[in-house]
Amino acid sequence: MLSQKFRLKKNSSFTATYRVKNSFYLNGVAVFVGLKKKNPNDTTKVGFVVSKKTHKRAVKRNRLKRLMRESYRILLKNKELGNAEKYMSLIFVGHEKALCHKYKEISVIIKSLLEKIND
User: Fold this and answer.
1) Does domain 4-116 have CATH number 3.30.230.10?
2) Rounded to whole angstroms, how far apart are CA atoms 19 and 74?
């Protein structure tokens, strides 16, 4: 499970990240990238969102969030985040197309999205 210190919690933090309008999309998962860090020692906060419009069942939405969160946690543990470490916040948004993916597919999608983030 992803530690609480890495999670984006406040509504204002989500809004600020969306306001930057720096996003990437791949196979049903989008990532919104926040501002660059001023202090490189700060942790990058991450949020995971699956809208109710994506699927009406909370079980399906929560499963997709769990899969995205776990794949990010593994990448964080293996230090394979690349340029994502340079930003204050990231938000992963799951869409309807991603609901049918398995864990391995979601993991590959998350990794390739993080590789798309550049300076």
Assistant:
1) yes
2) 28
Ranges of each domain in the chain: 4-116
Is this prediction's pTM over 0.85?
Answer: yes
Cα separation values, 41 from 16, 29, 38, 44, 85, Å: 20, 28, 9, 9, 10
Cβ–Cβ < 8 Å for 31, 91:
yes
Contact 2, 69 (CB under 8 A): yes
Count the helices and strands in the chain (H runs, E runs): 3, 4
Q: What stretch of H or E contains 114? A: helix 103-116
55-104 pLDDT, tens digit per residue, is: 999 999 999 999 999 999 999 999 888 888 889 999 999 999 999 999 99
